[in-house]
Design goal:
Blueprint lengths: L2 E9 L4 E11 L2 E13 L1 H18 L4 E6 L2 H7 L8 H14 L4 E6 L6 H12 L1
Parallel strand pairs: 1-4, 4-5
Antiparallel strand pairs: 1-2, 2-3
Helix pairs in contact: 1-3
């Protein structure tokens, strides 16, 4: 059975206070969420960190098949190797994502529009507002 992983990162001031939101679904039912502050980060670092935390949860819970959805086109295209990773701070995060991807039997990383990623956005903003 394939899980769906929705990820979002938020940053105020860019860089500034940052947080992540992750929603994991199975059969259209939410089975796990992550909503937490991650300190000072850029919006792109926060987007990557949301993806890393979501993938880590899946690995730790033996979830082997996932469809991933992010509203950050930059992160999606970098992970899918369509864009080069130029920023040093993102190279480290991209490498971590690549390591985690190896743990899955099936993984697909997709870009979605912000309005289709409302739950992950809500979780990220809830953490930021605490």
């Amino acid at each position: 059975m394939r899980h769906q992983l929705f990820c979002d990162g938020a940053s105020r001031s860019n860089p500034g206070d940052a947080s992540i939101g992750v929603s994991i679904l199975l059969d259209d039912k939410e089975v796990h969420t992550i909503s937490k502050k991650i300190g000072i980060a850029t919006n792109n670092e926060a987007e990557y960190q949301a993806l890393i935390d979501g993938l880590n949860y899946c690995v730790d819970n033996s979830i082997k098949e996932i469809e991933v959805f992010l509203d950050s086109n930059l992160v999606v295209e970098q992970v899918n190797e369509n864009f080069k990773v130029k920023a040093a701070n993102l190279k480290v995060l991209n490498s971590k994502v690549k390591e985690l991807i190896e743990e899955f039997k099936f993984i697909e990383i997709n870009h979605i529009y912000r309005e289709d990623n409302k739950r992950a956005d809500q979780l990220a903003n809830m953490a930021l507002d605490k």
